[in-house]
Amino acid sequence: MRLLIDTPALLWFCEGNAALSATARAAMEDAANDRHVSHATAWEVAIKVALGKLKLQVGFDVLFPGALDANGFVLLPSRMDHYQALIPLPRHHGDQFDRLIIAQAEVEGLTVVTCDGAFPAYAVPLLCDLPWLGSEIGQKEVGDCSDVFGWDSSPERSSVIRSPFHAARRIFPVPHAWAP
Question: Which of 43, 12, 32, 120 is nearest to 72 (CA)?
Answer without folding.
Answer: 32
